[in-house]
Inverse folding.
């Protein structure tokens, strides 16, 4: 396979995840024009953040990830801040997966248990897999990423004939700030940038791969959000696919539920193992405490009341954007001065544009947490 195409596919697979299921609800609350404007602004912002990260990677001889870059270019404090932010983001993502697992199982097996009970059952089963370990996790992640992408594609195909223009509206001032955090969460994939840089033989193609991948995800999300919004209108719910049950029939929703569950379950195992191994190998935490933190902390947050899918995705997106996004900007600026190799591409922007990006991340985070 063409290396650039493989890099694009890898980044798309990393970006497209649980956040996609929140997008139709945002369209139904904020309106078509508002969402398109947000996707334009947030999409451009995310493209530049990925490009900044890519340039910083190319300016560094040693193979490092975000925490390593923060340590090199910002210092120990930056390393700690980024490390804590990564841990919060990954644990928060696990809580999102627990919520979705229950929703998908209740779609597959209606009237047996509640979504809450299904979430607990799924967590128990997947936690056992994390404890005993799984082989070929990376392969499973890629396969399930493709499955998730195909699931959404199938739903779009079946919804297209059922779109009604009367369901669409352009703008809702009461939900003006809702899209920011959710769209940002849905487009973040910079953790894969060092991996796709390794894939590419011609490192200069990293810039092209990032732009194509992020733009492809934006287009995919817009189509998905618009199609579901146009199909379900006011009945669009925060729970994935709930409003589609009557529209598409039991068989299609059963298929969507099975594929969605498999994809999210795989993501849960992958992310939980990532946290466990990070604690074991990087923080030198004993195996059992590392396992307990990786799997039981998300459960504790879920039981404590963090069960709003939209609210959690929105908050995580705003937080990740502020802390990790701002850190990437500072790392990029420092790498331009302190980097130890010549990069294959270089992004040159007026300083005012860079400050505006950082300001947008701060503003977006503030309004997201005060938004009701």
């Amino acid at each position: 396979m063409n290396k650039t195409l493989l890099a694009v596919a890898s980044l798309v697979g990393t970006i497209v995840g649980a956040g996609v299921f929140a997008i139709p609800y945002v369209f139904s609350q904020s309106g078509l024009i508002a969402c398109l404007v947000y996707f334009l602004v947030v999409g451009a912002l995310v493209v530049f953040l990925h490009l900044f990260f890519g340039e910083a990677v190319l300016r560094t001889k040693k193979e490092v990830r975000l925490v390593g870059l923060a340590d090199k270019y910002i210092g120990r404090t930056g390393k700690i801040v980024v490390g804590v932010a990564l841990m919060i983001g990954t644990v928060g993502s696990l809580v999102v997966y627990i919520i979705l697992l229950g929703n998908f199982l209740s779609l597959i097996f209606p009237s047996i248990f509640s979504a809450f009970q299904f979430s607990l059952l799924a967590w128990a089963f997947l936690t056992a897999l994390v404890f005993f370990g799984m082989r070929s996790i990376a392969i499973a992640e890629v396969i399930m990423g493709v499955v998730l992408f195909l699931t959404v594609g199938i739903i779009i195909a079946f919804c297209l004939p059922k779109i009604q223009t009367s369901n669409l509206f352009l703008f809702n001032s009461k939900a003006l700030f809702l899209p920011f955090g959710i769209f940002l969460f849905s487009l973040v994939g910079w953790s894969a940038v060092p991996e796709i840089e390794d894939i590419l033989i011609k490192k200069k193609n990293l810039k092209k791969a990032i732009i194509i991948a992020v733009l492809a995800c934006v287009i995919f999300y817009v189509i998905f959000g618009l199609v579901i919004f146009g199909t379900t209108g006011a009945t669009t719910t925060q729970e994935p696919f709930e409003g589609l049950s009557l529209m598409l029939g039991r068989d299609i929703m059963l298929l969507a539920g099975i594929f969605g569950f498999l994809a999210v379950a795989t993501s849960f195992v992958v992310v939980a193992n990532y946290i466990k191994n990070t604690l074991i190998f990087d923080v030198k935490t004993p195996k059992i405490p590392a396992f307990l933190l990786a799997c039981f902390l998300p459960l504790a947050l879920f039981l404590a009341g963090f069960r709003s899918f939209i609210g959690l995705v929105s908050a995580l997106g705003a937080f990740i954007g502020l802390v990790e996004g701002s850190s990437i900007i500072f790392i990029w600026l420092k790498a331009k001065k302190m980097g130890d190799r010549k990069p294959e591409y270089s992004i040159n922007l007026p300083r005012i544009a860079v400050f505006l990006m950082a300001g947008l991340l701060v503003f977006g985070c503030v309004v997201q947490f005060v938004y009701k």
